[in-house]
UniProtKB/TrEMBL annotation:
Belongs to the TRAPPC13 family. The lineage of its organism: Eukaryota, Viridiplantae, Streptophyta, Embryophyta, Tracheophyta. InterPro entries: TRAPPC13 (IPR010378), TRAPPC13_C (IPR055428), TRAPPC13_M (IPR055429), TRAPPC13_N (IPR055427). This is Trafficking protein particle complex subunit 13. It comes from the Eukaryota. Residues 359-449 form the Trafficking protein particle complex subunit 13 C-terminal domain. GO terms for cellular component: TRAPPIII protein complex. Residues 25-215 form the Trafficking protein particle complex subunit 13 N-terminal domain. Pfam families: TRAPPC13_C, TRAPPC13_M, TRAPPC13_N. It comes from Panicum hallii var. hallii.
């Protein structure tokens, strides 16, 4: 059975009350937020106290014979009724025995109902029970009721009975209704309730009342973006700012159109048993109250790379998160983050990369490195010279170009690529690096950044 909804009455503001007394209104609004009750732990159940602790010394229960302390206390107190003694063995072990089922949860067995609007968080649904009461001795007729939420940016109409007014509210009677609003803004909110009605003397009166509350952020999402070659890694840290545990039903990253995302998870322990039921009934992720955190890691790749298309300039927008959760008693919440941007990188009009390196390389024997040059602009570029630049540190290179020291490449059309081979030779054994492969544009007289180092293993024949 679901927990009953309850809430506290929010009295009108002093300005509204003064206005009400001045105009002597027959009607008045009463507002009660519909929210689930909370579980209030009983401190007495968390730490058991025995009256005999007052009379006994500190080491009475840690001695070799705890029953001697009980006999000593019995001789002092001399209870008239033997049944008046506290049951149990009178040891520390007895303090952990459960005498009532509620002791297991440290709860008194009752639910605590909120006495005010309480904490309202972004992404929740604000549900309110509104009652308009007639406290006068006259009947109010043709009552037009409006309820709306006012924020710093907008006014949202929740109820309007202008087209079908309430015919009458008798003396001592009331008219009740429920309104709901999905909270999508932070900061101050005002629930504005107004009534336009005919009083007992036929005078048309206008009653406004205001009920204010504030909306806080339930969680924060901190992101870090790292780019390694053609792969972008996005780390998201979600922190719980509420006083209740949050059970994350869904934390999905929706990538932008030019990206494809994959969530990276830690490998499961070998003892973990997978089953079809476990996959269908997946346990939600718990983020504890008051600052609990949980981290998510995503791998992003350009969608054009998988389709075999030339690499184009990507937008800085990576995507956004869709987050849904539930609290301890199942109240839902939902948030959508703003667009997450990647770190700005300098765009390159020409891209040079290594496509293939032989898996087996022998010392002092030539081998071919397959390279690819891509024009990422909408105009023809070239020609180019590819060569091995001298070492910046002055050290002698171990992997050298075999044959012509400069390789001439022709013009490259817009968004086109050309593949070519560079003959090289290694002079020493072990793990070595191919470094310093540089490209020079002849017409623009421009040097490009060298190709990133490539590690190889050089074996003996």
């Amino acid at each position: 059975m679901a927990s009953p909804y309850a809430g506290g009455v929010q009295s009108p503001s002093p300005a509204a009350a003064a206005q009400q007394q001045q105009q002597n209104h027959s009607l008045a609004f009463r507002v009660m937020r519909l929210s689930r009750p909370s579980l209030q732990p009983d401190p007495a159940a968390l730490l058991r106290f025995d009256p005999r602790d007052v009379f006994l010394p500190e080491d009475a229960l840690t001695g070799p014979d705890p029953s001697a302390a009980a006999d000593f206390l019995h001789s002092i107190l001399h209870p008239p009724d033997p049944t008046a003694t506290v049951p149990g063995e009178f040891t520390f072990r007895d303090r952990f025995l459960l005498r009532d089922p509620a002791d297991a949860l440290a709860l008194p067995g009752l639910l605590v109902l909120p006495q005010s609007f309480g904490a309202i968080y972004l992404g929740e649904t604000f549900c309110s029970y509104i009652s308009i009461n007639n406290s006068s001795s006259f009947e109010a007729r043709d009552v037009v009721i409006k309820a709306e939420i006012q924020t710093e940016r907008q006014r949202i109409l929740l109820l309007d009975t202008s087209k079908s007014p309430v015919e009458s509210i008798r003396s001592g009677g009331r008219y009740d209704f429920i309104v709901e609003h999905d909270v999508k803004e932070l900061g101050a909110h005002t629930l504005v309730c107004t009534a336009l009605y005919n009083d007992g003397d036929g005078e048309r009166k206008y009653l406004p009342q205001f009920f204010k509350f504030s909306v806080s952020n339930p969680l924060s999402v901190r992101t870090k973006v790292r780019t390694i070659k053609d792969i972008t890694y996005l780390e998201a840290c979600i922190e719980n700012h509420t006083k209740s545990n949050l059970y994350m039903d869904q934390v999905d990253f929706e990538p932008a159109q030019q990206w494809k995302a994959k969530r990276l998870e830690a490998d499961e322990h070998p003892s973990a048993v997978k089953s079809e039921i476990g996959d269908l009934c997946k346990q939600p992720i718990l983020i504890r109250a008051g600052g609990g955190i949980y981290n998510y890691l995503y791998q992003l790749r350009s969608s054009s790379d998988e389709a075999g298309q030339p690499k184009l300039e990507l937008s800085s927008i990576l995507g956004k998160f869709q987050i849904t959760w539930r609290t301890n008693l199942g109240e839902p919440g939902r948030l959508q983050t703003q667009n997450i941007h990647s770190t700005p990188t300098a765009s390159k009009d020409v891209d040079l990369r290594a496509v293939k390196v032989p898996p087996i390389i022998y010392a002092e024997r030539p081998f071919m490195v397959n390279l690819c040059l891509t024009n990422q602009t909408d105009k023809t570029v070239g020609p180019f010279e590819v060569f091995l630049a001298p070492s910046m540190t002055g050290e002698e290179r171990v992997v050298l170009v075999n044959g012509l020291q400069k390789l001439i490449l022709p013009l490259v059309e817009a968004f086109e690529s050309i593949k070519f081979d560079l003959s090289m030779v290694a002079t020493q054994l072990g793990v070595q690096k191919i470094s310093g492969i540089t490209m020079y544009a002849v017409q623009e007289k421009k040097y490009y950044e060298p190709l990133p180092d490539i590690e190889i293993f050089v074996d003996a024949e």
